[in-house]
Each structure stands twice: as structure tokens, then as C-alpha cells.
Amino acid sequence: MRKLRPEIVQLMILAKAAPDEGNDHAPFGFATRVLAACRLAARREVLRLQRTFSIASWAATLVIVSCGGALLGWERGAQPAGQLKAAAHYLAETLSP
Questions:
Q1: What is the pTM for the complete model shown?
Q2: What's the rounded Cα separation, in Å, for the pair 33 and 23?
Q3: Alpha carbon of 12 to those of 7, 15, 22, 29, 75: distances in Å?
Q4: Whole-angstrom Cα distance, residue 53 to residue 95?
């Protein structure tokens, strides 16, 4: 087993011999400070989540508006059925004797 340094051993002996004051309570106001710090941390987390969801909702709105604008400006081409009819008519004229 490893031997401890003499300074550590002396500190352990002094800590063992220290009188017990019988005060096992936290300092005055400690619980209030801890509770306030926890509430502040929770509030910061909520604000961070609100900011994230706000940015995400604006981004989603931008995508929806952009897609809507693209759909409104999109010209419709000729219908496939009309193209098929024209191709069949052309083949019938050129292939028939």
C-alpha cells in the first residue's frame, strides 16, 4: 500500500481531533440563494427554448411563403394527354401509306 505524505497524515489527525460544534445546518439564507439560482437557470433555459422555437417558426413561415410564391409564378406547360394525342397523330400521318 502506498504511504501518505506526513503533512496529509498530520492534517487527518488534526481533523479527527477538531471539536464538533454541533451546527449541522446550512448558513442563514443558503437555501434561498440555491433556490434563486435554480429558478434563474430554469428561466434561462426556457428563454433559450423560446428563442429557438421562434427562429424555427419564422424559418418555416419563410419556406411556406417562398414555396407558395414559386407555385403561383409557375407556368403550367402543355398537358401530357395533349402531347400524346399530337404524337399519335404525327405517327399516324407519317407511317401510314
A1: 0.44
A2: 19
A3: 9, 5, 20, 31, 86
A4: 64
Tell me the pLDDT tens digit for each residue of 36-69: 999 999 999 999 999 999 999 999 999 999 988 8
Residue 49, C-alpha cell as written in the block: 427554448
The letter for the amino acid at 20 is: D
- Rounded CA-CA distance 15/60 in Å is 63
What are the angstrom distances between the C-alpha of 35 and each of 12, 46, 48, 58, 91?
Answer: 34, 16, 20, 35, 85
Displacement of CA 58 from its chain's centroid (Å): 15
Q: What is the dihedral of CA 61, 62, 65, 69, to 10 degrees?
A: -170
Which residue type, as a one-letter code, is found at position 61? T
Which residues have CB under 8 Å from 12's CB, separation 6+?
4
